[in-house]
Amino acid sequence: MKKIYNKKKHYNNVMIAKLSEYHKGVIWVLISASSFGFLVIVTKFTYREDINAITLLFLRFLFALIILFGYTQFENLDLKLKKKDLVAVLALGGIFFFVATFGFYHSLYYLPAGTAVLMSYTYPVFVTLIAFCFLNERITTKVIIALLLALIGVFLIVYSKKIEVNLKGVVLITISSFFNSIYLTLGKITVKNIDPRVMSFYIIFSVTFVYFITGTSTGLLQIYLTLKGTLLILLMGLVSAAIPVTFFKGLKLIGASTASILNTFGCVITIALGFLLLGEIISSIQLVGGMLIIISVLILRKKNQ
Question: How many whole angstroms from its chain centre is CA 96?
Fold first, then answer.
């Protein structure tokens, strides 16, 4: 009887350990999602300090790059890549990620934070269409339903009668989603075997460099900032560096499917903080549209798992 009891106790301890690892993964992913939602709100406050998008994004990624480099050294990660992989990663960051981030954060000049985030979740639609057009992937009934839900969701957000939505912001967020989808699709195809943390480092390195070149060549890179603006951008850099680290930690513990679902929690944080801190309001019709977009995202992600 004593041996049986010990076996049961051991089994229960193993189950608790597994459960705690799962819970840790959930927490890490929720931290990542919440960080993204928080980052959008901080961006809104930073713009109030008369800082333009180019300066904000350059400094944000520069600070994030420094933090990530320290993290890679602390974890003893090997930053050496094959020449082919290095060129691919630098191109992904310097072209597609650059346009995606600029489009999204520039749209925050014109759109409420919650609206911008909800519309940014349309990128899986573009991923699916790109896969259909160029990778010979089949369009199923579920995919068609997901695409229709996403289109209806965007329509409800943009054409809400109660709250006017700036069309320039809509165009910018659409461009951002499109380039983000190309960035993600090419990333899966061209650089499959690179540690995601190392890839994040080089992506941020290349996008930082492009923002520096863009800022200096156009004269948009601001040198003198307010103390509050500098502190806000430092905070953004810290959060930006934390997002990929926390997400990939959670991803290892709970898997891609669960992580992708939990990651949509970021839009809830953005909407809530936008309302509490910025006084932004989203109509009930827009919320319905946002829910339709998120449902379509979950359908498409489940199909791709």
Answer: 14
Cα–Cα distance, 206 to 152 (Å, whole number): 36
Identify whether the C-beta of residue 244 lies closer than 8 Å to the C-beta of residue 66.
no
- Residues 250 and 195: their CA atoms lie apart, in Å, by 15
Instruction: Round to whole Å and give the CA distance between 262 and 264.
Output: 5
Tens digits of residue pLDDT in 10-55: 544 544 455 578 788 888 888 888 888 899 999 999 999 999 999 9
* Cα 49 from chain centre: 24
- What are the structure tokens assigned to 182, written together? 């190309």
> How far apart are alpha carbons 93 and 189 in whole angstroms?
15
Torsion angle of the four alpha carbons 291, 293, 299, 301, in this order, in degrees rounded to the nearest 10: -120
Side-chain-side CA neighbours of 166 within 13 Å: the count stands at 13
Where do runs of H (alpha helix) occur along 191-255? Answer: 196-218, 227-254
Are 177 and 302 in contact by the 8 Å Cβ rule? The answer is no
